[in-house]
Every structure is written in C-alpha cells, then in structure tokens.
Amino acid sequence: MAKRKTKTKKKTVKNKKTLAGCIAAIVVVIVVALLDMTGIATYEDVMVMLNLSDGQVTDAEVSVHFIDVGQGDSILIRSGDENILIDAGEVEYGETVLAYLRNEGITKLDYVVATHPHSDHIGGIAEVIDNVDVENVIAPKVSSDMTPSSNVYKAFLTSVKEKGLSITAASPGKKYSIGECELLIMGPCEHYDDLNNYSVVTKLTHGQNTFLFTGDAEKKSENDILDEGYDVDVDVLKAGHHGSSTSSGKKFLEAVTPEYAVIMCGVGNSYNHPSESVMESLSSMTDEIYRTDLQGTIVALSDGNDIEFKVKGK
Length: 314
Known about the structure:
Layout: H1 2-38, H2 43-49, E1 62-66, E2 75-79, E3 82-86, H3 94-103, E4 108-109, E5 111-113, H4 119-122, H5 125-131, E6 133-134, E7 137-139, H6 151-162, E8 167-169, E9 175-178, E10 181-187, E11 201-206, E12 209-213, H7 219-227, E13 236-238, H8 250-256, E14 260-263, H9 276-283, E15 289-291, H10 292-295, E16 298-302, E17 307-311
Parallel strand pairs: 3-5, 4-6, 5-7, 7-8, 12-13, 13-14, 14-15
Antiparallel strand pairs: 1-2, 1-16, 2-3, 9-10, 10-11, 11-12, 16-17
C-alpha cells in the first residue's frame, strides 16, 4: 500500500509540473502577442532578448533600416563593419532598438546622431548608449533658451557623460566617412524658435545612391538648407516630421525629387500623420512610398547603383 501511495504522489507532482509548464507557456505567448500588438516589441525582438534566437544579419554592401518604433524615428545605417544610429524613438522603445541591433549582430556604433531633443527621437538613446559600445555622439547645438529640461534629455546627457563620451555639435558642411559611404550634415543652418527646426539633417551617399534624413525639420529649416545651396536631389527621402504638413514643403520636394519616400509614424497616431497634403505631394512624385505604421520596419539595400526595399510587415 505504501508503494502505491508514493507512485500516486509522484504522478500528481509530475502532473502539476506539466500543468504549470503549460500555463507558463500560455502566459509567455500572451505577453509576446500583447507586446507585438502594442508595438513595444515584436516576436523576433523578444526571442532575441530571451536569447532564444541569434537573429539574422543583413547581407548587403550598405543597408538603411527604418526601425518601427511607433510614433517616432530610429534609423540604422550599416556600411561594412561600421554603423550609424539616427535616433531611437521614445524611452519605451529603447529595448526594441537594442534587440534590433543584437539581431543584426551589432555590438558597436561608430556614430549615434540625436537629431533633436524631443522624446520621440532621443528617448531610447540613453538605453542604447548604456548597453552598446558607442564611439561618437552628434547632436544639434541649440540656443540656451531652447535647451530642454525634460527627464528624457537629462537621461541622454547622463548616459553620454557616464560612458566618458562628449557631444559633437552638428556642423553644416561637415562630412563623415562610414565604410563605403559619406554622411554630409546639411542642417540646422540657423538658430530657431522651434526645436523641430534644430533637427540634424543628413545626406548619405553610397556610389550613385543617395538618402536624405530630415528628422523633424520643418519648412523654415528646409528653405534655409536650399538657400545654402546644398544638393538635396536624392533617391530616398525620409519625410520630415512623420509626414506632418509642417514639413515637406513644395519647394523642398521639387528640389529633392525622391524616387522613394519613407514615412515613420505610429498606427492610428493622434496627430493624423501623415497628412493628406503631404501624401498627395509625395504621390505626385513617386508611387514608391513606404510607411512604418502600415508595413513595420523597412530596410533599403544599396549596392551603389540600385536600391532594393524589403518590408517586415505588421
């Protein structure tokens, strides 16, 4: 009788462990699904963070990754073994960007560009700097009366300081070599009364292929860049300010004449980005318009002559 009771007890314990394991698995699936639905982290991001996936490295001479961070910007440029990160979305997307970098096998960033001190652009940068080897940080030098006092901006400055880094002020006309590419800073050109216009505007050149990254630069900054005589005629335009009507002015777009346009904005965002007017303007120039709110992360692959786009999908 004693033996039978022992076997029954062992079987009961085993069944409880199996049930607990099933419940835990179901909880994990639900959590992952919720993270994916809310845009905080995709299934692939979670798998990488849990060390259940090594991810895949993009195989291209140069690749530009428009990372889906909801209503924000985060752009990764890869050229050979060198990497640039432009912005990192809101604070809650810091882990998403980190997971993406790990997925790409990136442990070092040669440059981190903080286009301007708004949380939907620099919020996640502190998390990145804290966990990745960063060599250089570039940001605009804003006027003293425009310097923000937000906790997000303070966290960014703290991370830079604690890593023993310093901030290089974005200087129009300055060029940086990155692998087979050249990154040219075009703006900000003046002092402004709006932080959006302080956005660091950059042009990436790889052979015959060109990209323009505008941050949240609005029409005032766009016109100043044109007045300075910069060549903004590019293949790929990252539309300014998430497709807001405050950016992508007619004169500017006519000078850019993009073959491709990328709009980075969140699903059902309260700003109604992108605006109908901007969509109409872009559509009159190209039918190759990509949107992170509709297609998720978007990757442009460049061989110096041709550009191929791949979308992750929602």
